[in-house]
Amino acid sequence: MGPLAGFKVIELAGLGPGPFCGMMLADMGANVIRVDRPGTNEQQKLDPMCRSRQSIAIDLKSDAGLEVLLRLVDGADALFEGFRPGVAERLGFGPEVCLQRNPRLVYGRITGWGQSGPLAHTAGHDINYIALSGALHAIGRAGERPVPPLNLVGDIGGGGMLMAFGIVCALLEASRSGKGQVIDAAMVDGAIGLMAMFYGFRASGLYDEQTGTNFLSGAAHFYDTYETGDGKFLSVGPLEPQFYNQFIDIIGVDRARFEAGRFSVQPNATASDFWPELKAELAAVFRTRSRDEWCKLFEGTDCCVAPVLTTTEASQHPHNVARKNFIELEGELQNAPAPRFGRSCTTQPTAPPLPGEHSRQVLQQAGYSAADIDALLAAGAIAQA
Q: I need a labelling partner for 289 at 20 to 30 A (CA). Which of 167, 196, 216, 296 fits?
């Protein structure tokens, strides 16, 4: 049983952060009921972020469909949605309505800009939210334009994971107070939070707010990726002195020159002056062997060097295989649930459902009779895959 077993969560289907939040909660054992729109979406069966759910398809614009959702709310511990501010209210299932029916309900709202502020009602995407947070400006090469880090910082880390954390926090608080509450999880807020370390760096003089100049952004020779002789790549990150010294010994370069460019915890402009030329020297050295030959040379050391793998290669790496970090569901490669617990077992994921695959089952669990369900299906208030 996962640590969230026994909690019932309603997920109003959306894209990106919402499904990721639902996956996190479902992987931990929560009973997540995904409310989909009526219609066919075969791609949903391939999406790991939609796994381990029951899916009910509801026409939320119909009075009968709205009443179905509100009846599900009566027996739920949490609900989360990703509409623009005010949309849920206009559709009739805003926080005020839901909390009046179920005062213990945790009501989560995921948006890009938040429920308040000048941009709250405007459209946007991950790239816009992380741009406003300051995170996007920090990611990229010096002298070049900022590079979008997929949608990991806004949608996933700053949105979906933040919402999952918020829901668990609010559920814990509700278990003590007996009262639910509304969670305002904005991706711009979450992305700003992910930059906390760099506010500390700025205060210490280690971050000048220029793209690609910080040692963690690829400016330093000891924290970057290098192409190997076979056109593949290595990640190199020996930050600490003891790791750096071991790295220098194995790589076979001049110790005196590389000691001059070693990173110091204190601001060290002199050391950073050496970084470009030392990086060029390392680049030339790494091209003398293949990626796997370098990995063999660094194996068992503390040099902080690892191969840059594709998703397929990652699933086959011995460490990931040993930890069972990947699973297959219906022949498709997926991430395994994380984190792990010493006593509670994370739930074994089940295949993602089609929209409305469990409509009848969900309504039966909510106390609807077979005749009532048939009437709702006939009226188009719900749909069955």
A: 216
Q: What are phi and psi of 187, to 5 degrees?
A: -65, -35
What are the two backbone dihedrals, phi and then psi, of residue 83, each rounded to the nearest 5 degrees?
A: -80, 165
Q: How far apart are CA 322 and CA 63, in angstroms?
A: 52
Q: Give the three-class secondary structure for 46.
A: helix
d(CA 253, CA 211): 29
Q: What is the pLDDT of residue 88?
A: 98
Which residues on neighbouring strands pair with residue 33, listed in sequence order?
Answer: 10, 54
125 is catalytic: yes
Smallest CA-to-CA distance from 104 within 169, 162, 180 is with 180
- Contact yes or no for 347/337 (Cβ under 8 A): yes
Which CA distances in Å does 214 have to 202, 267, 290, 363? Answer: 10, 11, 28, 54
User: Which is higher by pLDDT, 184 or 275?
Assistant: 184
* Share above pLDDT 90 across residues of the chain, in percent, rounded to a whole number: 87
Give start and end residues of each alpha helix (H) in the chain: 17-27, 63-74, 87-91, 95-101, 126-133, 162-177, 187-194, 196-204, 241-251, 255-260, 269-286, 291-298, 311-316, 318-322, 359-365, 370-379
Which one of 59, 77, 155, 224 is the catalytic residue?
155
According to DSSP, the β-strands at 54-58 and 31-36 are: parallel
DSSP-derived secondary structure for 342-368: SSSPPPPP-PPPPTTTTHHHHHHHTT-
> Is pLDDT of 15 > 70?
yes
Q: Which of 47, 125, 137, 317 is catalytic?
A: 125
Measure the CA–CA gap between 87 and 108, rounded to whole angstroms: 14
pLDDT per residue as tens digits for the range 301-358: 999 999 999 999 999 999 999 999 999 998 899 999 999 999 988 778 999 999 999 9
CA distance 157 to 151: 9
